[in-house]
């Protein structure tokens, strides 16, 4: 009994955060933020997940990009045909979600952390959530996808529309773990500054059975702090640095 208790408690204490590449692994040759290459490269270095951003184009096609206006094109007001002509910095065409998911099928070990950007109207976000969930289902990727959003409406719509058990996280930072639990989130996915201000939220979330993801953590000292705090996921632009710190921390235990 004692041994089991020790293993259990140490297992909990030794749990290490999982590494999520923010906008994919893009700080490497041939890559770019939110490119298909960034997904492939995140997988190639063994990241747990690749985070990426999604907009719905004017003609209802989900596309992968972070910026509301990218290289002169307004995401929500451009057709997918126009957006397909935009080139990312690595020369790839701006990806559609369809192309991104099709590539994900060739890389079965990486989780897909899909952020729906905040759209002009709640109706548009609902429509985007419906289209995305349908597409994910079509590709059979329901068990590899997690949804995140700054918009509370979008967060609630993913919870309402996605298959039961699909992890949905809220990004905006103002809701407590208890409030997130009440709306059905899998946990919180908050900015480092929010977690630094509310360090008790990590334990509070865990006590409620929620997970904790923190973004965008690019400095060693912040990574070390979150490893020690027991964050479940860390979202970073420096996945290699984080992997090394996690390895070092495991070896020291
Ligand atoms: Mg994002």
SSE arrangement:
Blueprint: H1 2-14, E1 18-21, H2 36-44, E2 49-56, E3 62-64, E4 69-70, E5 73-74, H3 80-84, H4 97-105, E6 111-116, H5 122-138, E7 145-149, H6 152-161, E8 168-170, H7 177-183, E9 187-191, H8 192-197, H9 200-207, E10 211-215, H10 220-229, E11 233-236, H11 239-251
Parallel strand pairs: 1-2, 1-11, 2-6, 6-7, 7-8, 8-9, 9-10, 10-11
Antiparallel strand pairs: 2-3, 4-5
3D architecture notes:
- The strands form two sheets. Strands 1-2-6-7-8-9-10-11 form an eight-stranded parallel β-barrel, surrounded by six helices.
- The protein starts with a helix and ends with a helix.
- The protein is globular.
- Helix 2 links the parallel strand 1 and strand 2.
- The protein contains eleven helices and eleven strands.
- It is α/β, with parallel strands linked by helices and 253 residues long.
- Bound molecules: magnesium ion (MG).
- Magnesium ion (MG) binds next to strand 2.
Short structural summary:
With 253 residues, the protein is α/β, with parallel strands linked by helices. The chain contains eleven helices and eleven strands. α5 (122-138) packs parallel to α6 and α10 crosses α11.
Helix content: 40-55%
Strand order of the largest sheet: 1-2-6-7-8-9-10-11
Largest sheet: 8 strands, parallel, barrel
Low-confidence stretches: none
Question: Got a strand count?
Answer: 11
What's the number of helices?
Answer: 11
Order of helices and strands: HEHEEEEHHEHEHEHEHHEHEH
Shape: globular
Strand content: 15-25%
> Structural class of the secondary structure composition?
alpha/beta
| End-to-end distance | 22 Å
Cα Rg = 18 Å
pLDDT averaged over residues: 95
In this entry the ligands are: magnesium ion
């Amino acid at each position: 009994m004692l041994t089991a208790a020790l293993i259990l408690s140490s297992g909990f204490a030794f749990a290490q955060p999982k590494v999520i590449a923010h906008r994919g692994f893009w700080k490497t040759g041939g890559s770019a933020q939110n490119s298909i290459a960034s997904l492939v490269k995140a997988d190639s270095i063994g990241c747990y997940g690749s985070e990426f951003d999604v907009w719905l184009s004017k003609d209802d096609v989900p596309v992968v990009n972070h910026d509301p206006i990218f290289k002169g094109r307004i995401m929500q007001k451009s057709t997918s045909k126009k957006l397909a002509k935009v080139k990312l910095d690595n020369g790839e065409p701006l990806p559609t979600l369809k192309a991104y998911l099709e590539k994900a099928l060739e890389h079965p070990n990486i989780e897909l952390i899909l952020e729906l950007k905040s759209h002009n109207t709640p109706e548009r976000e609902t429509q985007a959530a419906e289209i995305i969930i349908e597409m994910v289902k079509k590709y059979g990727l329901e068990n590899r996808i997690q949804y995140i959003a700054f918009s509370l409406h979008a967060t609630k719509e993913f919870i309402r529309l996605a298959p039961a058990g699909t992890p949905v996280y809220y990004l905006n930072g103002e809701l407590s773990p208890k409030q997130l639990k009440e709306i059905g989130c899998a946990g919180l996915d908050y900015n480092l500054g929010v977690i630094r201000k509310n360090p008790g939220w990590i334990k509070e979330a865990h006590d409620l059975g929620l997970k904790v993801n923190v973004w965008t953590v690019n400095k060693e000292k912040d990574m070390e702090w979150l490893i020690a705090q027991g964050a479940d996921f860390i979202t970073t632009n420096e996945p290699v640095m984080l992997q090394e710190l996690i390895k070092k921390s495991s070896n020291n235990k």
